[in-house]
What we know:
This protein is mainly alpha-helical.
Amino acid sequence: MLECGPAPAPQDLCSHQESLSMVAAPSDGFHGSQWRSTCLLPTEEQKRDVGHPGRATLDESLGDRSPWEEELLGQIRAMSDSQRSRVLEAIQHRIEEHTQLLWKEVADPGIRELLAPLNLEPQQPVEKAFLFLVYGLILRECASSDLVRRHLMRLLELSHQTAGQREGMAVASGIASSSHLQEVWATLEHLGRTRVLRTACTSPDYQEPYTDVHWRWVSSTSLLCYGHMALHAGERILPWVDNVISRMVYYFSCSCYDNILETSFLSAAVMLVKALKQEHSTRRYRFTQIPELIQCLLAILQKEPNFLATLFRQKIILVIMELSKLRPSLKPAVKSRILQTCLQSLYMLPPMEMLKSCLPPLDLAPDVMVLYQKSMQALDLLLQTFISENKSMDEMCFLLQHTEPWLKSDKSHECKRVVQTIFLLLKYVVDYVKLTDEATPSMLGHQIGLLMLLWRDRDPVTQSHSRQCIYLLLQLLIQQKGSMGQFMHLNKMKNFEAKALRRSEMKFYNLVKALDRSLTPAQHTQLILTLLGGLCSHDHLQCDLASQLLLMIFQNQSIKVEQVAEILQGLFQELPSIVFKNILQTMMKAVTVLGTQHTQETVEVMLSLCHPSERQVLPLWKALANNNQLARKVLMLLYMKLKLRPPKELVRLSQQAELISLLALGTIYELLYTREYKATVRWAFAGILVGLLTQLHYLFELDVVEGISDYQEDSLEVKPLSPCRTCLEALKGLFWTTNYWEVFAYLQLLRGWELFEHLETYTEGVTLLARAMAHYDCEVKAVLGQAVISLKSSEERDNIVAILVITEFLNSQELTQYMSRRAMDNFLSLGLSSPNQLVRAMSLKGLTSILMDPKKEQAPVRGRAISLFGDVVHSGGKKYRPALKRQAFQALVPLLFHLVDSCPAVVMKTKLTFLRCAILLKWEFRKELFGKLAWGHGLGAENDIFIYMVESNFGSYHQFLMQALIYLGSPHKNLKRMAMKFIGGILQDYFTDLCFSLKRGDLKIFKKYLEVLKKDSDSVSRRFYQNFLEDITELSKFVRQ
C-alpha cells in the first residue's frame, strides 16, 4: 500500500512491486552494422542527455539564473504567506481556465505587482510553462508545510490531459521538493493512493483507455514528478532513491501502456540517472531497486518497432549503462537480460539499405544513419561499461556468450553488426583496460571458434573483423601470460596476415599454431568442438573452412591425451549431420592423423561411442585403416582388449554388455566384413583366431549362451546377435572373408560349427577346426606360434585352446617345416604341469606319438569308404595329382547319387568328398557348389548340383550316362531313383551331344539296362521305361557305328 504523510527513512519503506517478465530470448540470427568510432568515452555529456524534449525550456531557466530570475525570487521572498497563497490560487485558476494567459487578462494586483519588474509588454502573452515555474518557486520559498501540501495538491488536481500540463506540474513539484522533500513525497503518495490506483489497468498490456481524460494520464504525471524530485533534491535524494524507483516501477507496471507512459517513464529515469551522476557520494550507497527499474526499461525497448525514427533505443541503453555503475553490481541474470534485449533490439533491425524505406509516413523524416550510429554507439558504451566494472576474462566471455546466436545468423547484416560490436569491444579492452586476473574460461575457445568460422564470410567487412577479433583475443591472452616474445611474434604475424589476404589458406597456419600455444587444453577442446559444429552447416564455404582448420589443428600435433575423448565424441555426434561428401572425407583424414598420434586413446574412445552392431561408428574405424601401420596397431589393440576378461565372480549381470572384451569382440566382427581391413585381418589371422576361440570359452564360463543355438542364417529379420553368437559368427567369418573358404566348407558340411554351440562339444569343435586347417594348410605356422604363446599363459582357457590346436596339428605332414620335434616336445611338456586335466591328458597324448593316427570312428562301411576316398584325394600330393584327378572324375557319379543316401552320416561325408573332388578338378563354380551342398534343399538344389557337375565337365556326358546305368539295378531305392533322374536329365538336356558321342555298343548296353525296368515291380521304374523308350529309339537313328 502507498502511505500518505511524511516519508519514513528509505530503509523502512516497503514498496509494493509488480514484477515484469521481460527476458528477451535471443533470436537465431545475427546482425551487422556500419563502421563506428571507438572513441566513445564516458565524458560525452551531450550524447547522453536523453531528457524529454518538452523539458528543455524549463530546465534552461533552472540551470543558469538570469538577473530577472534573481529579481523574481527577491519579490517572492518579500511576500507574506497570505500573499503567496493568493498568487498561487490565481495562477492555479488561470492555468486551469486557459491554455495561455494574456497580460491584459491579468486583473489580480498581486500578479501584476509580481510581474511588473519583468518589464513585459501588456500585449505579450505569458507562457503557461512560466507560470508553473513561478508556482514551484513560490512553493519552494514557503515556510509553511501545510501551505505547500495544500497548494501542491490543488495543482495536481488539475487536468493531466496535455503534455505541457503534466510537465509543468512535475517541474513545480520538483522545484518545491528542493526545500520540502517530505511534503512533496507525502502529496505524491496521496495522489497515488487516491488517483493513480483508480486508473490502474489489470495488466501492463491492458489497452482499454480510462474514460475520464482529466485523470487518464495521472500516472505519467507522477512519474515525471519523481524524476524532477530526484533532479532538484540534490544529495538529499540519495536515501530516497529506492523508494522513488519502487513507485516508478509500480506505476509503470499497473498503468495502461501507451506512448505517453513510455515517454514519461523514460524521462523520469533519465532525470534520476542525471541526479545520481551529479552526486559524488552516490558510490557510497547500495541501491536495491535498480534491477526492477532496468526491467521496465527493457520492456519499453522490447516494444520498440522494428525501424528507427527516434533516439529511444539510444536513450534506454545509455540509462541502463549508467544504472549498471551503481552499487551493488548487477547480478549475471540481470546483465544477461540486458544483453539479450539490447542486442536483439539493434541487431534485428533491417539492413542499412532498407532502414529508411521501413519508416512510416512522417512529417519530417529523421536521419536514419545518424540514429543508427548513435544507437550502436550506445550499445558499445554499455559493453565497455560492463567490462570496465568487472575487468576479467570471465566477464569478457560472459559478454561474448550473448553474441553467439547472432554470430550463427544466416543473415549477413546481423552477422556483420555483431562482429563489428565484438571488434570494437576487444579493441577498447586492449587499448584501455587491464584485465585484473588470469582466469582461463574454457568457453573462450568456443567463442574463438565461432569467430573463426566467419573467416570466409561472403561479406569482406565481416571477414576482416572476424580475423582481427582473433588477433585481439590472442593479444589479451598473451598479455595475461606476460610473454613479450609471443606478443612481438603476434604483431609480426598480424602484419604478415594483412599483406597476405589474397594468398592461399596457408595464411591461417601460423594463426592456428598461435592458438594452439596460447589456449589451455579446455579452451582448445571447446575451439575444436565449435569447429566440429561448423561441419554441419549447409554453407559449403563454412563447412570447408571448418574441416580445413580442424585438419590443420590435428596435423599440428597440439591435441593432448585428455582431449581425445571429448573431441571424438563431438565428431561422432556431428557425423550424421554432415551434408557434403568432401567434408566427410577431410574429417576422415583428420581422424587418421589423430589415431596415428593417440592410437590407444582413440581405440578406447571409439569402443565406448556406441555398440559395434549399430555401425554408426564404422566410418571412424575405416578412417583408421587408411594407414596400414595404424590399422595393424588398431587390430592389435582390439586383440588386447579382447583379452581383458574379468572372472565371473567379479562381473555383475548388468555389466556384461559393457565389458570391454565384448565391445572389442563386436568391433572385430564388424571389421572382418570391412573392405579397408581385409589385408590387415589376413595379417592378424592367427591372433584373431586364437582370441576368438578363447573368447568363446570365456563366454561359456560367464554362462551367456542365450541365442547361440537358435540363430537362423536364412532369416530376413535382422536381430542383434548375442555375445556368444557374435563370437561364433566372427569365427566363421574369419575364414570366409580371408578366402579360406575350404576350411569353412569342411566344418559346414560336417556340421562342425554346431559343435561350438555347447561347452560339452566345444573341444570337439576346436579339434575339427584344427584338423581342417591342417588339411588345407591354413596359416598353420602362424596359428601354431600363437598356440605356443597361449600354452604359456596362466589362463586355463588359453591352455585348452592351445593344446587342442597343437595336438591336432601333429597330424600335418608339413608340421616339421615349422617346428622341430625337440621344440614340440618341450612345449607339450609344459602342458603336463597344467592344473587342467584336459590339458594334461592332451599333452601326454601328443608326447606319446608325434605322428599319431587319426581318431577311429564307428561309422557304416560305405560312409568310411567315401570319407577315406576324400582324404586320399586331398592329401595325395603333386606327384599323384594326375592319377587322383582321373579317380575323382570316375567317382563323381557315385558320389552324386550318394548325396541321397539313406544314412545322414554318409550324406554328410559324401558332400565333403564331392566338394574335394570338385576342388581337385578345379571346377569353375566351386563356391556356388559349396553353397548348395551346405544349405541347399529339394529339387532346386539337386538340379543346380547336377548342372555344376555336368557343365564343369564339358564333353563327358556319355561317360556320366554310362556310369549311371549301373545304378538302375541298385537295391537301394533312393540311389536307383536318383539314377533315373540323372539319366532323364542327360537325355533331355544333352540329346544332341549324345548323338555324336555315343556308339552302337553303348546304345546296346543302355537298352539292356532299360529293358530290366520294363518288368520291374516298382511303378516309378516302369513309368521311366515308358517315358524314355521313344528317346532311345530316336537316339539309335543318329548314333554312329
